[in-house]
Structure formats: C-alpha cells, structure tokens
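Long-time lurker, finally posting.

We've been working with Hexosyltransferase (Cyclopterus lumpus) and I want a structural starting point before designing mutants. I don't trust myself to interpret raw outputs, so I'm hoping someone here can both generate the structure tokens and explain anything notable. Sequence follows.
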Amino acid sequence: MRFSAFISVLRSVGPVVIGISLGFTLSLLSVNWTEEACYLDGKQGEDVTSGHEGQLKGARKPNSISTINDVESEEDFEPRIVPYKQVQQSPTKKVFRAKYISTELGMRERLFVGVLTSKNTISTLGVAVNRTISHHLDTVIFFTGMRNRKVPHGMFVVSHGDERLIWNMFQNIKYILDHYINEYDWFYFVQDDAYTEADRIKALVDHLSMDRELYMGSPEEFIGGEMEGKYCYGGFGYILSRTLLLRLQPFLENCRNDILSARPDEWLGRCIIDYTNTNCVSEYQGLQYHHYELGKNSDPSKEQSEEFKKALTVHPVSDPEQMYRLHRYFTEIELQKTYDEIAKLQAEIKNVSVVAFEGNRSSQWPVGISPPFEPKSRFEVLKWEYFTEEEIYSCVDGSPKCELQGIDRMDVADVIEVAMVELNKKYKPVLHLKKQQLINGYRRFDPVRGMEYTLDLQLEVVNQKGHSRSITKRVHLVRPLSRIEIIPMPYVTEATRIHIIIPLTLQDRVHVDHFLEVFAANAFETSENAILTFLFIYDPVEAQQVNQNDIFSGVKTQINTYERKYPTVKIPWISVKTETPSQIKFMDIISKKHPVDSLFFLANVNTNVNSEFLNRCRMNSINNWQAFFPIHFQDFNPDVAYHNQQHPSTVDLVKDAGHFDRRSFEEACFYNSDYMTTRTRMVADVQENEEILETLDIFDMFLKYSGLHVFRAVEPALHQQYSYQACNPRLSEDIFHRCVQSNWEGLGSRSQLAMLLFEQEQGNST
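Top reply, 14 upvotes:
Generated this for you. Predicted structure of Hexosyltransferase:
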C-alpha cells in the first residue's frame, strides 16, 4: 500500500521535479565563467589574467568587438570637422493620376462587339441587330464603308469611306488597335445577317483565359486547299483575343500589301496564320463555339435540333422580322432557364431550412424574398386596403369608397388571374378550378418586399369525373420589388435664368397688385436671376377698343411704377388677341420671341413665387430630358375655412387651411428647345384637326408628343391664394371637367363643408 502510494505521488510530482532540474542545468551551462575587467577608484586596474604582448585575456563585454589595433586606434584618433553641404533638391515631377481607378489599375472590360454592315443593310438588318444585342452588351460599334449617309438613331457607326471589303477589314482591325486595344480583353466580329445570342457570347468569354492567343469561331478550309490551316468563317462570327491582336499589330501593313483574297474573313485568317501561327478553333479549354446554319424561309419556333437550341450565332438571317423571331425564341429559352434555376434554389433553401435552428420557420415565404417589415410601434403598422372587383375602400381624396378604375383595376384583375393560374398548376390534373367571384380582397405595400395581397375566392372545383362543387379558398400573393436601378441624370445648376410667364385676362386684373408686391419682395429686392413677362389676353371686342379703353392700362401703369422703383428691372409684356385662350397658342408666340435655351416658368397671377421654388424649377427642369409640373398648395375659400372666425394674415400648410390641387396643371417649368421639339412632333395631327391646339394644354402636349420625363410632384414652396376659376367650355371636356373639379375641391375640406351644411339644416329646422 505504501509503495503504491509512493508511486502515485512520484507520478504526479516527478515531471515537475525533472523540469525544474533541467531548467537549472541549462541555466548553469549558459553562464559565462570569466570575469570582466573592473576599475578601482576610477583608474584602470590590472586584469585577472594577462596574455602575451599585453593583450587582455579577460572576458569582453557582450556585443563588443575586440580587434588588435583597438588601443592604438583610440590613441591616434583625431577629430575633424565635416563641413555641411546643403542638399540640392531636384524639381518634383508632377505625378499623373488617371481619371478612373480602372485605368490606373489596368482594368479592362471583357467584350467589344463589332458588327460588319453596309449602306444597303444598315437601316434594316443593322437596326435589327442593334435592337436585339445593344442593351445586353457594353459596346457595340457598326463598321461600314459608306460615307455621308444618315445614321439610324441610337447606333454608333464608323465609316471608312470605301466599299472595298478587304480594305474595310484592314481599317476595322486598325481602328480597334488605335482606339480600343487597351480597354477590352476580347473582340467579337459578326456580320449583320447573323443573329447573336448576346448573353451566351458574354458567358463564353468570361470563362476564357485572357492571356491566350485565341482565334475562335467556325473553322473553314481555305478556297483551293493550297494553304494549310483553317480560318474562321465570318457568317457565324469569330472571337479574337487582345493578346493575338497585339502580336498581329506589327504585321498588319504587311498583310494588306502581301495577301490577296476576295473574302475579308479569309484575308484576316491568312494574316493571323502567317504571322502568329494561330489557327481558327471551335473548341478551347472545354468550351464550344456553337453555331447553326439556318435554312431558307425556316421558322425558328419549329426548329427542334439541339445544335440550334445551344447556338451562340445563327446565320443567315434574311430580314429583320426573322431576326426578331429568333430573338424572341432564344429569349424564351433563357427565361425558362432562369425560372428553372429559381425553382431549384427555392427547393434548396427549403431543404436547408429544415435543419436550421428555427426549422421551417427560418425560410420566409415566398422563398428568396425579403421578410415582411416589422413595425417598432403602433404608428408604423402598415395599413391594408380592402377591395372588390368593382370598388376600393381607400381613396385618394379621403372618400370611404370609390370605383376601382385605371391602373388599380388592372392590378386587381392581374392578381386574380395569376392566383387562378397558380391554383390550377398546383391541383391539376386531379382538380380543375374556375373563378366564380372575389369575395374579399386585401392589399398593402410593404417597402421591404413589395405589394402583398390576400384574396378570398369563391371557386368552382371540377374533378376528373366531372363532378363539381363550390368552395371558398384564401390565397396569398406577393408582387416583389424588382431590382432597383439608379438612373443617371444630366448635370444642372441653380444659376440658370428663368423667364416667368404670367397670362392675364380681364378677370385676373384684380390680383396683379398683390402678385407684384410679393414678387418684388422675393425677386426684385434679392436680385433673383429671373425675368417677369406679362401676357395680356384680349378678346376681339376688347382688342378693337384698346386705343379708347385699354382694359390693361392700370396694369401697365403698375409695371412702369415698379420699373422706376427698381431701375435694373425691366418687365416686358406681350398683347395677344384670341377668342379661346389656349396655353399652346400663347406659348407659340412666346417661344418665337425667346432664345432656344430659355427656361420658362408658366404660372398663374394668383401664385406666390419665391426663390426656393425657382431653384427647384431650375433643378427639376432638364434640357432634352425632363419637364416639371409642380402641384401648388391652394388656400381654401376663407369664408368656408374660417367660418365665423377672423381671417388670418398668413396661411400655414395644414389640412384645414388648404390642399394640394392635383386637378390644376397651370404651372409648368420647361425649356424652349423641348417645347419647340414637342410642338414639331404634333404638326401632322394639327393639320388634320386644328382644334387640337385648343383642346390640349401644355401638360397633355408633353405627355403625348414628347419623349421627355414628365415630372409631377407636390411643391410646398408654391402657394396660391383662393380664387374662383372661370372654366372655359370651349376647351376640351377633360380640361373643363378638371377646372370644375378644382373649383369644387378648393371650397373647403369635407368636415368644413359638412359643418356648414349642418348649420344650414339647423337654421332651416328652426
């Protein structure tokens, strides 16, 4: 027992004892056993041991180096002064920094596409090629030999001025070497009578090594078979690497002078083979250049071969219509592949979520869509809107119920149709479902994931035996937000001069005094970069009496008064005679009297204009890009809004004081050049129907005839006093109806009008 206890203690203590002993032993071995020289009383004493010839045999200090001549060198040392010489600094060289970081790092784009076209086909097949591939690829340039021909819109065309095919091919390669060789890794050439599946070409070059000398396409034997090697047939297109073109660059002139050929693709192939020893290949690194030769009058939808379905290029294409049919066919194939990949990913997410911490609850529905927004307080709870197939119970104007129309009606119909398609897809072939009616519908907009829908559908269910019954089924749908895209906007400044146009009729004279008072304080006294122009509108009777009784004489006197008060200010005015006031007719006159680059603000005499709004007018009106139609804040009728109360001197932007008048389109900011372009586009319609100038306003004109963005938004800085508008029945029905609606909605809020009616009923009852 004692021995076993001793052994157990020894086992636990033994390693510690051995470790301590080993540490002491190693420490003793590393000690220096010689003594250093010591000094007594500040004088050098004798060393413990002396060596021959007076050398010290004592141990030296660590990190010191002893030499034979140490003592002698210390005795012979004489200090000397080294004179200071100022270093001459060479002028600093200016460091060149590239404009883009990609240039400085040598980063290049992957694919350049050159389309070989001609003057006879550029407006037909060339346009078709551009429409089918340009929005898939970064750079597409069309090469042709024509000169002084009108270029189709949206195409970048390089003309060499010569119709010789070999010369044009030489110029194409030379143009790329001069302009694009340092910007791209791969160069793809194709004729305009071939269809190219752009996404597949991009995928192909993305998997190729950029440092290879590669000549890839459809290999063909040379005509006659005398020359070894193969060239790439131009009809199916071919890919050239940047490395290959750089190696070919010094010999390009030799190819032009020495190689004779009738075909440009054969000439280029002989040049590449002769000077780079590179043959055309259709397969490289396991990647295949698939192509397909299309028969005459063939229908793409009836082609069933696998080679056709896998093709990168299809040749020959006879006309643009066939090009578009091919594009539709291959787009449908790629779209179906995308749907299959989405379904596969959704299935994988479901399978993985089973083993997650929260189980299936960790995968949100629909799979792959962001989870719903979670409110942090009762004020952040998203509101559901109730609707049926005919009505919606959440209206813009605050009404409890309104008719479902326009885009909302289309939205509901589309959601119901999708729900029925998905239900039948789920239950077929066992059951077939038919919609009888929508019982309840709910929708809400979730800013995180999109529009959510809940539908209670009454369905007729028919089984395989033909028996049917009616059931109620609840379905949930989500219309997810698509990929957000940032659209670059042209640069604008706040220094642009604005020409403010104020049309005046006989009824508007009473408001001029207040308008000029406010405008002078906001613009004249602050030297705002704006010019005020009045447009005096006379009817035929008033125009005949202008010399005896000018209805605008008082306004002209006020204008002269302000011009004398502010010597640097000039207020021009223009007189117009017309029976039917029309914005387009007025602007036709004003447009001719101003430069093309003028910025107009068409306003109303009741509008209070300030610098804040004028700056927003400058920022939101973009030449050749966008027109701005602000929604002003209009005061309610003070007799209604402040019934039995004192009218305030200033009005705040609150719901009981006024509203944003969405029915009014009087104010507009746009450039004269955009107006003139839009006006030109409606000439043909005006020749057929001259009344269109009276039935349309500026907003409708820009909306229907211009290619501009029409930007319409509420504008809190644009304030308009209450005034009853005289609606002209000669204008179009829509404009007249909008004017009447604006007058009605401008009287007061619903609660204020209801209170007046209540008081009136109370008074009548008593």
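Before you design anything, note these points.
The CA atoms of residues 642 and 657 lie 9 Å apart.
Residues 34-74 have pLDDT under 50 and may be disordered.
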